[in-house]
Amino acid sequence: MATSEEILQNYFGYTSFRPPQAEIVDAVLERHDVLALLPTGGGKSLCFQVPTLQTEGLCLVVTPLIALMQDQVQQLRRRHIDAVAVHSGMSAHEIDIALDRAVYGKIRFLYVSPERLKTEMFNKRFPNMPVSLIAVDEAHCISQWGHDFRPPYLEIHALREVKPDVPLIALTATATGPVRDDIVRHLKLRNPRIFQRSFARDNISLVVRHTEQKEKQMLDILQKVPGPAIVYVRSRRGTVSLARWLVKQKISATYYHAGLTYTERQERQQEWINNHSRVMVATNAFGMGINKPDVRSVIHLDMPEDLESYYQEAGRAGRDGKRSFATLIYHDADVAALQHRAEQAQPSIDYLRKVYQALANFYQLAVGAAQGVTFDFDLEEFCRRFGFKSQAAYPALKKLEQEGFVQLSEGFYRPSRLMIAVDNKRLYEFQVANVHYDKLIKMLLRLYGAELFADYLIVQEAQLADALHQSKEELRTGLTQLGKLQLIHYQPASDSPTLTWLLPRQDADRMPLRVEHLKERARVFEKKTEAMITYATQTVRCRMQVIQNYFGEDTFNTCGICDLCLKRKKRDHQAHLVDYRNQVLFLLKARPLSLDDLEAAVDARDRDVFIETIREMLDQQEIRCDESWNLHLVKQ
Ligand code: ADP
């Protein structure tokens, strides 16, 4: 068996593990259940990828974010590791093929969203999959105390009943004490080994600025701190206007939000990663899965809704370990706005029912229908049709999601995929009978080979169209036709947001809304809002310490580099200055002394401050130095 270090080197090209990756890998190899708490960017994925590659079998990875799932699968494939993702953006047939490959093929990693685990298609296959490890990423989603509660996470433990001997590793970057307890309890971890790396980042200066002139303050920071930066704002429109304003101020900037097309998002992201634009002005849609190590500044111009989100975004600064700044700029109106948003995020039961009913009408679904079905979802269109305001309807939809009725997915890109639906012989017969399609089919086989008969492959439509001297539209028409003729299975590219019905459509008046539970969640939410506001408005405690305590780390250590630590240092420094000065005046009044004798007499603990005091007193001509380097008081 290859060693963990060899796997790390050969597959991933890294020379050493980061703490505590090696210990985690060992614990997994010893088949212990593991809970790994590592800050964002800490390298969680390798903790389950390396041990899987060291042994036989498949690692089932449960993860909620489809975009991240796709990203990881692509990265693994680039390293020639067979990985597959199964999510709601795929057709039933695609999912069927992927799950079959997990049972029969040589897949090493199967990524699934938690909702998948409940489907019959998955449950039928799972017992026959050669699973060696179950990895639950973003494990905080299991807890209603977490910031992104996903009810289907509560069902993950059922996997363990089917495969009781398979170890489970749960991973998360953000888990407060109660969340940690929930993870252990709900995943039914057995004597888990718990690994935690401190959440403190010793190269990030956390700073809060309270001002009415937020843009000016931001500009000031960008002028003083050179290097790449991210500026987070809440509104999509805000990203556009702020980026333009920065360009006018001669700072190169671009913008990013979920309303842009996939290509636009890719272009902007690349522009910033390659340093063609210095500042990325973005909504919170930006940042997941992006690994730019040299971000020197992350600035928030609006208050995030909780400390989990804030610290995750702020933590994108200084991945390279060099000194960086994370600044939250706010004024009083922002505190009020956050409180208002928090109130709006708690819709009444009646309103929830109304939105649910409207959804059912939107898709024209009968009671009992649509379980597991995914539709494209246009929030603006939905609100327009039913007369909702999106600021109110969106939190209601999120609530329905938390209650497990539906699942919303931000627009994530699904490239075009296709697979041949018939065998070789039948295809040949078709080609002979339909010369019109012959060129297209030949080109498909030439570019993608026989694998097209076995699995869905991602096809580059631009490349294919070029090779055929066709426009992309002509090509798509051709592929769609072949799809209709049932010669191929064709899934055209899409990046629209989706909505999945997790439960069959209910009667809105009788849907099982757990009133007490909703109230409890509202209280949790309120506490989170409060913690965010306290972080910003308090002026006493080290900011890093506040964050560490929030995430359940017991520490009294201070970071020494946040604005409040620096303020305290300055204050102490001033106090020392005054103290040393008084002592010098007192001692020299009695007789002249050399610098060394004076220093010994003052018992200066902070030598730099003592020397600074002497220099200042010389400058102010309070004291003078004679030819023998003795110090005298000027005015006796
Ligand atoms: P997380 O999921 O904890 O946010 P990732 O697993 O995405 O972090 O890892 C963050 C980045 O660090 C990735 O680019 C990953 O390849 C890199 N990385 C992880 N472990 C190591 C290591 N031991 N040496 C070098 N780079 C690493």
Give a structural overview.
The protein has 636 residues and is of the alpha/beta class. It folds into five domains: 4-196, P-loop containing nucleotide triphosphate hydrolases (Rossmann fold); 204-330 and 538-550, Rossmann fold; 340-413 and 496-525, Orthogonal Bundle (Arc Repressor Mutant, subunit A); 417-491; 573-633. The strands form five sheets. It has a seven-stranded parallel β-sheet, sandwiched between helices. Strands 8-13-12-9-11-10 form a six-stranded parallel β-sheet, sandwiched between helices. Strands 14-19-15 form a three-stranded antiparallel β-sheet. The longest helix is centred in the last third of the chain and has 28 residues, at 563-590. Residues 14, 17-18, 21, 38, 40-46, 291 line the site of adenosine-5'-diphosphate. Adenosine-5'-diphosphate binds at residues 14, 17-18, 21, 38, 40-46, 291.
The Cα radius of gyration reads: 30 Å
Tally of DSSP β-strands: 22
Into which percentage range does the β-strand content fall?
Answer: 5-15%
Oligomer: single chain
Total separate domains: 5
What's the CATH class label of the largest domain?
Alpha Beta
What's the gist of this structure?
This protein has 636 residues and is an alpha/beta fold. The chain is 46% helix and 14% strand.
Q: Which descriptors would you attach to this protein?
A:
636 residues; alpha/beta; Rossmann fold; Arc Repressor Mutant, subunit A; 25 helices; binds adenosine-5'-diphosphate
What topology does this entry show?
Blueprint: H1 4-12, H2 21-29, E1 34-37, H3 45-54, E2 58-62, H4 66-78, E3 83-86, H5 92-104, E4 109-112, H6 120-125, E5 131-136, H7 157-162, E6 168-172, H8 177-186, E7 193-196, E8 204-210, H9 214-224, E9 229-232, H10 236-248, E10 253-256, H11 262-273, E11 279-282, E12 297-300, H12 307-314, E13 324-330, H13 332-344, H14 349-362, E14 374-376, H15 379-386, H16 390-402, E15 406-409, E16 417-420, H17 424-433, H18 435-448, E17 457-458, H19 461-467, H20 472-484, E18 488-491, E19 498-501, H21 515-537, H22 543-550, H23 563-590, E20 593-594, H24 595-602, H25 607-619, E21 623-625, E22 630-633
Parallel strand pairs: 1-6, 1-7, 2-4, 2-5, 3-4, 5-6, 8-13, 9-11, 9-12, 10-11, 12-13
Antiparallel strand pairs: 14-19, 15-19, 16-17, 16-18, 20-22, 21-22
Helix pairs in contact: 2-3, 13-21, 14-16, 17-18, 19-20, 23-25
Bound molecules: adenosine-5'-diphosphate.
Adenosine-5'-diphosphate (ADP) binds at residues 14, 17-18, 21, 38, 40-46, 291.
